[in-house]
Amino acid sequence: MPASEAARPGEEPTGTLGWHLRRTIELAAPIILSRTGLVIMFTVDTIMAGRAGELSLGAFGLGVAPLLTAMMISLGALQATVVLAAHAMGRGEPRAIGAILRASFANALLLGLLAIPLSWGAGPFFLATGQSPEVAAVAARVAQVFALGLPGLLLFIAANLILEATDRARVGTLVMLGANLANLALDGILVLGWGGFNAHGDAVTVMATSTVVRWCTFAAAFGVIVHTAARDGDKHGILATPSTWIRSVLTLGGAEGREIRRMGLPMGLAQGVEAAAFSSLIFIAGLIGTSALAAHQTTMTAMSMVYMNAVGLAGAASIRVGNALGRGSPRDATRAGWTAFGLGGLLSGSCGVFLVLFPEVIARWVVDEPAAVAVATQTLRIGGFLTAFDSMMGVTLGSLRGMGDVWMSLWLQCGAFWFVAIPLAYVLAIEVGFGAPGLFYGIGAGIFTSLALLSLRFRVVSQRMEARMTRHAASP
């Protein structure tokens, strides 16, 4: 059993509810803070873009939408890193971590670079979806600058996943804290004119500051990993010759890279299905009007912030489920998954209450135009109600990732969001005439459908796994 999962002297034994709660929170808390840091950066950028006007805010949201889907797919694919690392730690093979890190870097770099040529077609794509030429022009430039920072962000995520799997998640939290302070300062100077700077920033300038900061986060996290390995005797096999690193990049990580892609592809697509659904709604919002576009971006920013509870708990669930299976304890894996599930609903539901009770206050933090605030007040109330269920859905995906059950999750997500959520959202928003609130009624239907299907899937898979390991242990 790895040290991270061992009961300490004086603690209740492993397997009790209190122990599962404490271990899940210990692992999830720094992951939540680290991932929240990513969203805070987007939130600050959204607010800064909103200060430049309704058009700038709408263009910012539109510009990041298509590549945000690519980013979420990539992030989901890289989650295989933490699953492989958790299994290696559970087996008592810590030196396998180095090869996993190099393979993850190779795949992160590939995925990030693929986004750059995709961004070149953003302008024509926005026009083809019916967006106004004025908004489409600014949004296209936002997308191109965003793409330049995506490789740095994904490399940071790969490094941070290894830190999380080896019980050093606090490093990522501190790096993201520094990154957000730097991003805020740059936005304040270049966009708002702090310190007397003659600034006329727009959405493109806002995105440019974040792009620089994202590359710096990777440099900082990787520097910590290398420094720690050199100081502690390289117990995780991180240090290697330059030729080993180059060979890993050229071969896309070798055997470990193939395993990351095999396991990560369905993980990424499953995560991307929901992200693509949410992103597609912004194009429907653009057909309704600029106020609806700004309101949609405001609500999605708030919901994304709350969803970081799910991301952290899903990461903790993946690690703990993977650890438990690695040491041959399927019952602990099941309990770890359901513990994270309950915590996800509780934490995100508590945050969602603020969206329901104070939607207008939250809306005014992001945008000033009265029309956009009025629409955002309605959509934030709906979004606040959905946060608990959205979080439980995300945590269940993390638990299934830890069990290696990835393809079925993808098909269930596809069915819930593309056959339920998107068609219903379009009908309610456009055909029935509900406007922007109709979009969130539709996505809510997708969340409820997905949650029901994934929860049932986790129960079935955990029961099968426990029965299989019990038979294996009983066999001579």
Would you write up a description of this structure?
By secondary structure, the protein is mainly alpha-helical. It has one domain (about 10-470). Helices cover about 85% and strands about 0% of the residues. It contains 16 helices and no strands. It has helices at about 15-50, 55-80, 80-90, 95-120, 120-130, 135-165, 170-190, 205-230, 240-250, 255-290, 290-325, 330-355, 360-365, 370-400, 405-430, 435-475. Helix 3 runs parallel beside helix 6 (about 135-165), helix 6 (about 135-165) packs antiparallel against helix 7 (about 170-190) and helix 15 packs antiparallel against helix 16. The longest helix has about 40 residues, at about 435-475. The protein starts with 16 loop residues before the first helix and ends with a helix.
SSE layout:
Layout (H helix, E strand, L loop, with lengths): L16 H35 L2 H25 L1 H11 L6 H24 L1 H7 L4 H33 L3 H22 L12 H29 L10 H9 L3 H35 L1 H37 L3 H28 L1 H8 L3 H33 L4 H25 L4 H39 L2
Helix-strand pattern, N to C? HHHHHHHHHHHHHHHH
Tell me the distance between the termini: 24 Å
Percent of residues in helical segments? over 70%
SS elements, strand count:
0
Mean pLDDT: 85
CA radius of gyration: 22 Å
Number of domains: 1
Shape: globular
Number of separate helices? 16
Strand content: under 5%
List keywords for this structure.
476 residues, mainly alpha, 0% strand
Summarize the structure.
The chain has 476 residues and is mainly alpha-helical.
